[in-house]
Specification:
Elements (H helix, E strand, L loop, with lengths): L18 H22 L1 H31 L6 H11 L2 H4 L4 H5 L1 H4 L17 H5 L6 H32 L4 H27 L12 H26 L9 H32 L2 H9 L5 H20 L8 H23 L12 H22 L12 H5 L6
């Protein structure tokens, strides 16, 4: 005789938790330290800030896509972890504030923004940058940032609000509304994320281009997103939260997705490299050449080993996806290397004579990270940690391993 699965856990994050306040305090301290760094070395400030900004924004964007895919496919496997994802992207409209330093530092970050490069006949004139000036110009760059965050902020806010409304009203008809937002949202997401990755990272080297870069950015952000999800679930379990709701089978699913996107990331990253290597065009190969000399090559090799080979070998084993210690260690490793990869992409445009690290890299990471996770926990504690009235919650709770 079958029985209907029920939730025995409390669905409320402890109201008296000081975690958001502590994270906001850490974020404020980190940002203050980074701002002090601005007066010491403005260029270093903007590059350090950009790397951390892209790191955390990419995670929120991956969470947004995951939930939209969840809605349009009407899948049930991830209902118990969906509110975690929703809390990551629900504040994108607030997070938009943190793109302002990139706009203000446009001349420090992006070589193409210097007007003298477009003056034909002068010594500084750059024919390639001039040819791209219809897209790479300061005014259009600023407009695009507003467009990106208007779309992401709207989608994130509405998807979260409708999901929370379903908790209160038990109106299953809202699932149709979620799908109506998600279907066009995925199309808008694809275009905006691709162009945002061009703006923030690829245009740091305006002579270089790769038609695969948008997918490459998406792939590495999505792999990092699963690592964040795994560590967040483990944190909640350590605090005694949702232990009987997010069960071992759901942890296994997270591990399986993590493994899948480890393979997908490697496929996209290697495909981009192979196409450029095979074509052997100077304007393309120089980008990799500069990142395989001056100490940068050590980061490149570490990406291959610690972002693909090691996680692939470890997670290939079925039992490893159930082992929380293994999953936790691999997730932490991938997040460290994810930061290193964004650093490896961006910083050679600044340090053209070899690898270098600054204390501002750490300060900016702690500052933006504290604010990012502070916003997450502030939202997460306001509502149920699981969408309790979702029509597919019962199927999710009934899930068992396929032998």
């Amino acid at each position: 005789m079958s029985h209907k699965p029920t939730i025995t856990d409390s669905l409320q994050f402890p109201a008296d938790s000081k975690v958001p306040r502590a994270l906001f305090g850490l974020g404020a301290a980190g940002l203050i330290a980074t701002i002090i760094g601005y007066f010491l070395d403005a260029d270093q400030f903007f590059f350090s800030y950009l790397v951390s900004f892209v790191f955390f924004t990419g995670i929120a964007l991956a969470a947004l896509l995951m939930v939209m895919l969840h809605h349009i496919t009407r899948s049930s496997w991830g209902v118990v972890v969906r509110r975690i994802s929703e809390s990551f992207f629900s504040n994108l409209w607030i997070w938009a504030i943190f793109v302002l330093p990139i706009i203000l530092g446009i001349h420090n970050l992006f070589h193409w923004s210097h007007p003298e490069l477009l003056e034909y006949g002068t010594e500084e004139y750059d024919k390639i940058i001039s040819g791209k000036s219809a897209y790479l110009n300061s005014t259009f760059f600023v407009i695009r940032q507003f467009i990106y965050f208007a779309i992401w902020g709207f989608l994130g806010y509405k998807l979260h609000q409708v999901s929370v409304k379903m908790d209160r009203t038990n109106d299953w008809g809202l699932t149709s509304l979620l799908r109506k937002f998600s279907a066009p949202g995925i199309l808008l997401f694809a275009f905006t994320v691709a162009f945002a990755s061009f703006d923030w990272l690829m245009s740091l080297d305006p002579h270089w281009f790769s038609t695969m870069f948008g997918v490459y950015f998406f792939a590495m952000s999505f792999q990092a997103f699963w690592a964040v999800m795994i560590l967040t679930v483990f944190y909640l379990h350590r605090k005694g939260l949702l232990q009987e709701t997010i069960r071992q089978v759901h942890v296994y699913d997270l591990g399986a997705w993590f493994f899948a996107f480890t393979v997908f990331y490697a496929y996209i990253a290697f495909s981009q490299f192979l196409l450029i290597y095979y074509a052997n065009l100077p304007e393309e190969t120089l980008w990799y050449y500069h990142r395989l000399e001056g100490g940068w090559q050590y980061i490149a090799y570490s990406l291959l080993i610690f972002r693909f080979v090691l996680p692939f070998i470890v997670l290939l084993n079925r039992e490893a996806k159930k082992n929380r210690t293994v999953l936790g260690l691999v997730s932490a490793l991938v997040l460290i290397v994810h930061f290193a990869e964004i650093y490896w992409i961006a910083m050679p445009a600044f340090y053209d004579h070899g690898i270098h690290f600054s204390w501002m890299d750490i300060a900016a990471f702690l500052g933006l990270g504290g604010i990012f996770f502070g916003l997450f926990f502030r939202t997460f504690k306001k509502h149920n940690m699981v969408p309790k009235n979702d029509p597919k919650l019962e199927d999710c709770l009934s899930k068992t391993y396929h032998q």
